[in-house]
Design brief:
The complex is a heterodimer. Chain A is mainly alpha-helical. Chain A is built from 11 helices and 2 strands, in the order H-H-H-H-H-H-E-E-H-H-H-H-H. Chain A has a two-stranded antiparallel ribbon. The longest helix of chain A has 26 residues. The radius of gyration of chain A is 18 Å and the shape is globular. Chain B is mainly alpha-helical. Chain B has a domain of about 110 residues. In chain B, helix 1 runs antiparallel to helix 3 and helix 3 packs antiparallel against helix 4. Chain B is elongated. The chains are: A mainly alpha, B mainly alpha. At the A-B interface, helix 1, helix 3, helix 4, helix 9 and helix 10 of A face helix 1, helix 3 and helix 4 of B.
Chain lengths: ~280, ~190
């Protein structure tokens, strides 16, 4: 196989990753990392460098559309980015101290449970009043639904903020899985509508990934020849996927999300046991 | 400024950043594939990138003599800069709105972001450097030397010559060939 064919193959795989990533609010690393390492025999360091590029490309590519359409909640995103970026920095400093392999297994198990749990319909009957903190931070908003704008409230801001710190740490420690935690924190803890959760996660993951980019670049993980088809493929996929989200049914998106997160969880557990992470 | 206006501006900025970086990466990618497209991919072993692809300053300096890898990496840097730029834009927008709470929130995000981007280039190795690195163990190395080189001579004894000189070799070739041909014919006659 020559580089031309290899790049075309990586472009195709990345397009699928970008498509799935834009619909689920995940970075696309779920697809890119294992295909590069397991199927194409790429070294893990180059693979996580390419994954970082794919996360930023998915985020910026899809979020451009989501923000303009009014799906992503910019205020929620900006506020929670404090937690994710601080978490990412903390995670980067903790890699030397914590056993990343066992952490990968634990987080994988948590994600597996969360994937199953996210399929259960959240009980909307016990409508609690909106969190006063959410009101003060002007979180409450509306997103475009089939019959005009749908208004929503944001709940349990402190819990969401704490889980976001964990999500940031996860990306700093393990390089993957932060998108899934972000969606789960907004959907399950803060009770934000699913489409707003995934699109706001999409909006945020670019900034969390950019926080790790300095380290990856300085250590030489970002290989231009490999990152090129990944970036162009992911962008193409996310631009194709973003318009689908607007018309897609929430239930279908939930199932897709649960399946992708389930696969991600299995990958993390596998990586933990095989010692593939760093 | 309203939130709706902010959304439109942030969306446009993200779109522009993605478009520009994609065009730069595409241009570099076509050039790169035209040069090395026929070669076999070699990503199976981590070697790290050369320093001009790892440091922003060196990358900018090497733009004077661009190579395809430099162009692609420039496009990737523009992609990484896009989310940072949108945080800056949000900061300006919240300041114009007079929304003090969100000015503080955005400043905190920006400071953490800049710290984490600049930290690995600052003094000392990045904190990651103490992590575990897996590298393949080199196999047992073998080396072959000619017997002449391993010839042991007791210390103190001068070695005049290790092999016959060129003049001797030339003189001995002819008699050796003649003698060997006679030996062979002698064996065959049995």
């Amino acid at each position: 196989m020559n580089l031309l064919l290899f790049s075309a193959l990586v472009f195709g795989v990345s397009a699928v990753a970008g498509f799935l990533g834009s619909l689920t609010g995940l970075g696309g690393g779920v697809v890119v990392t294992p295909v590069l390492t397991l199927l194409l025999g790429v070294d893990f360091h180059y693979a996580i460098g390419a994954t970082l590029v794919s996360v930023i490309a998915t985020s910026s590519g899809a979020a451009a559309a989501f923000v303009k359409e009014g799906f992503s909640n910019i205020r929620v995103g900006m506020f929670l980015e404090i937690a994710t970026t601080l978490g990412a920095v903390a995670g980067a400093h903790l890699t030397a101290l914590l056993p990343t392999s066992s952490l990968a297994v634990i987080f994988g198990a948590v994600l597996l449970y969360s994937a199953w749990h996210s399929l259960q319909r959240p009980s909307l009957n016990k409508e609690s009043p909106p969190d006063p903190l959410a009101v003060r931070l002007k979180f409450d908003g509306a997103y475009p639904g089939p019959q005009g704008p749908v208004r929503y409230h944001v709940r349990r801001v402190k819990t969401g903020f704490s889980v976001m710190f964990g999500a940031g740490m996860l990306s700093g420690l393990l390089g993957i899985g932060s998108g899934a935690m972000k969606v789960l924190a907004m959907d399950q803890a803060m009770r934000i509508p699913f489409k707003v959760s995934t699109t706001t996660s999409n909006f945020m993951i670019g900034v969390t990934a950019a926080a790790s980019a300095g380290v990856y670049l300085a250590k030489g993980y970002i290989n231009p020849g490999l990152a090129m088809p990944v970036m162009l493929g992911v962008l193409t996929g996310s631009l194709l996927g973003a318009p689908r989200l607007m018309s897609a049914k929430t239930r279908a998106l939930r199932i897709l999300f649960a399946v992708v997160v389930g696969v991600l969880a299995v990958e993390m557990i596998y990586n933990g046991f095989s010692g593939g992470l760093r | 400024m309203t939130d709706d206006r902010l959304e439109q501006m942030v969306g446009s900025l993200l779109r522009a950043g993605v478009l520009i970086s994609a065009l730069v990466v595409l241009a570099g990618g076509i050039w790169w594939l035209a040069e090395v497209g026929g070669a076999a991919p070699a990503y199976n072993q981590f070697q790290g990138e050369p320093s001009e692809l790892r440091h922003v300053g060196l990358l900018a300096a090497s733009l004077a003599h661009p190579r395809p890898e430099i162009v692609i990496q420039l496009g990737l840097l523009l992609l990484i800069a896009t989310p940072v730029a949108r945080v800056v834009l949000a900061l300006v927008a919240f300041a114009l709105e007079g929304d003090f709470t969100y000015v503080v929130i955005t400043v905190v995000v920006l400071v953490v972001l800049i710290y984490s981007l600049v930290m690995p280039f600052g003094g000392g190795p990045p904190p990651h450097a103490t992590g575990l690195r897996k590298t393949p163990m080199p196999s047992i190395s073998t080396s072959t030397t000619s017997p002449a080189a391993s010839l042991r001579v007791a210390p103190g004894v001068p070695v005049k010559m290790r092999s016959p000189g060129i003049s001797v070799t030339q003189r001995l070739i002819q008699p050796t060939m003649v003698a060997q041909s006679k030996m062979k014919s002698a064996v065959r006659s049995f």
